């Protein structure tokens, strides 16, 4: 069946659940380390802020995987792609678990990030099989799994580290991905190649896609800024909560992922708004929520309730934006959804890795207040771009 033809019969409830779990587990691999930064830094005799760059290494690896591997999903058998990517991911997780030093752990983190981009093979696969009228709903369901993976990864890793040590988290993750590999091979039918593989031309076509699709450029920039702001919080939160006045353990820091998980419920709502043609309004609304979250979080240096409220608001804003953007971009080029994903998610994780680096740099220079001011500038830029675009539009057609 051609790639552009929907196959709603493939998207049974158990398969959609499996795809949601797949995206959640694979993207969760990027975030296990965040509540563990203090423990990992102590293990390798490094300062906690320098350990923050381990998050950057993982996210940069993810961006490389999205840019260099995910586009192959427009041509190759995605069942085979996922098999290979998950097998290498298991090996990288095991390498992280037994790493003897900071450099080897950073190298394993880069490989974990690169192969965890398998999540971005699954999402365009679902988009290609869904009927047009329900694509946002299906994507919202799968993205809810992805976002819960991002957030609950911190809670799980915090508790595992508290009871079994941080290395145990990577052994457990390797076992989970190995089981996932078997489940996906059973659930996804084998595909024929959809065209001739000319890898260089495939990558060059990304440039053409960016040039020809202004909405893809716009949404990619929006999400780089939105997920950059998200990443500043979840890297910087460990710096705040592990030091004075809180001095929280890894398990307690990980619990804050549950607050963010509640905020991630905005994904389904955002997907439905996109299906109903309200993507433009939703973009402005979620960006305002993202900015408001940093106003609240600025009081987090002295108030844990400000941290709780700010984390919830930030996740509502960031995840709502993410799903809204996807409801737009997957309408643009049905024949090239893997490449659309590659452009969009490469920009996203460049933004996310930059956000992790900004968190380390701004916190070391100006503490929590400086981090909040730096992060708040990112949704300000989104709103400025959105407002400029709104002035050029006719009265809203979303």
Summarize the structure in words.
The structure is a single chain. The protein is mainly α and 398 residues long. Helix content is 78%, strand content 0%. It is built from 15 helices and no strands.
Principal-axes shape call: globular
Individual helix count: 15
- CATH topology group: Growth Hormone, Chain: A
Main sheet makeup: none
Primary descriptors:
398 residues; mainly alpha; Growth Hormone, Chain: A; globular; disordered N terminus
Topology at a glance:
Elements: H1 13-28, H2 37-43, H3 48-68, H4 78-97, H5 102-116, H6 119-129, H7 135-164, H8 166-187, H9 199-212, H10 214-242, H11 250-263, H12 266-275, H13 279-297, H14 304-329, H15 337-392
Helix pairs in contact: 1-6, 1-7, 1-8, 2-3, 3-5, 3-15, 4-5, 4-8, 6-7, 6-15, 7-8, 7-11, 7-12, 7-14, 9-15, 10-14, 10-15, 11-14, 12-14, 13-14, 13-15
Give a short summary of the structure.
The protein is mostly helical and 398 residues long.
